[in-house]
Amino acid sequence: MGLQGLKSWIIMRRDEKLLIAAMSVNGLIFGSSQLVNPLYLKDLGLNAALIGLLIAGQMLIGSFLSIIFSTLGDAFGRKKFAIINRSISIVGFLLLFLKFPYGLLIVSLMSGGGLTGALLAEKSLNLDKNMSLSYSISTFLSVIGSLLPMFIKLRYIILLNLFIVLISLSLISLIKEDYKGGKLDFRLKSFKNVMKLSFESLVGLGAGLILPIISLWFYLKFAKTAAEISPIFAISNGILAVSTLFSPKLSRHLGRVKTIVYTHIIGIILLILLPLANSFYLASLIFILRNTFMNMTGPIFSSFVLNLIPYDERARGQSLINLIDSIPRSFGPFIGGYLFYLGNLNLPFFITAVLYTISTIGFYLFFKDVK
Question: Among residues 303, 296, 301, 284, which one has the least CA distance to residue 240?
Fold first, then answer.
């Protein structure tokens, strides 16, 4: 390796670390938001149906921003649009902190996933390992995020999340981007694979029915406060973080597709059992196990997707998958919230289990022969 090659390797390793840190620190937000946002909106006077509608709007707007920014990022460089995306989220969190609930609509942090994923794929020497490490650190940090309502008022958690996004933005700004796009192109040579992967949108619809408002479900079913629910989310995320580290080893043993399918099947069975639990502690245990099995293969799936999509299409390809997933997912919180409003706390779980089952079968049939 010459001097130039050594220099490139050092830069690549540095940028890998920066990107992993920039993606991982968001775990604090993800850990708190699922618990905090629905209950904070409730404190602002919104009912369950309106809370579901607002969260649905956030997902839908974020999805469209994702495809726009990712298409522009593939053409003109991903770094600058990842920074713009986070800047918009900072404004959204500020509006939320100022008690303007509709600020949630432009908290679009998730819509930058295609951009940062493509940047990490560009820089990574071992994408599976880096994805797994990023997911694991993010999930460990989400444990802390889940515990915040025990010590900090919901409103000030919103303010803390604003500063976390600012940290993520700062880390991305330090990255040296090597990718050169060159032209705006809405075509996808990988369109066929993207459409197959988009079958996962059924998971999006199912997940949207319950996951964004699961803290509200615990509150309505067991009359538990955010502080009482908080440790359950923290334990769940902690166990998930550990299991995520082992997912690459499981993948090497079983193969990526079988690993994803087998863990999803266990997660679906637990999902069916969750609404049938007649105590808070039993429901909490099932919730923790379901979260682990359903999500431990997240980095494996992300790596699988990035390896199926050509280098110059990764940001918009992944974002198109996210868009097709998020459109039905965005309707989920409204439907789930409305059913909760009517007093039906079980049906959303059973609908989700059916959708997960169809999606898992489809994924296996489409990709069982992919090595």
Answer: 296
Q: How many CA atoms lie within 13 A of 261 on its CB side?
A: 15
72-110 pLDDT, tens digit each = 877 787 888 889 889 999 999 999 999 999 999 988 765
Instruction: Say how many C-beta atoms besides its own lie within 10 A of residue 324's C-beta.
Output: 20
The domains located in the chain, with CATH, are 3-367 (1.20.1250.20)
| Beta strand extents in the chain (DSSP E only) | none
User: Which of 153, 85, 149 is closest to 114 using CA atoms?
Assistant: 85
- Residue 44 sits at φ, ψ, to 5 deg, of -80, 0
Q: Which residues of 45-61 are buried (b: 16+ CB within 10 A; e: fewer)?
A: ebebbbbbbbbbbbbbb
Cα 239 off chain centre by: 17
Provide the H-helix boundaries in 44-181.
Answer: 48-76, 78-97, 113-123, 127-147, 154-173
CA distance 42 to 60: 21
- DSSP-derived 3-state class of residue 1: coil
Which amino acid would we find at residue 277? A
Tokens linked to 123: 């820089």
**Within 13 A of 81's CA, how many CA atoms are on the CB side?**
25
End-to-end Cα distance, the chain: 31
Tell me how far apart the alpha carbons of residues 98 and 93 are, in angstroms, rounded to a whole number: 9
Phi, psi angle pair for 61, to nearest 5°: -65, -45
The answer to whether residue 353 scores a pLDDT higher than 80 is yes
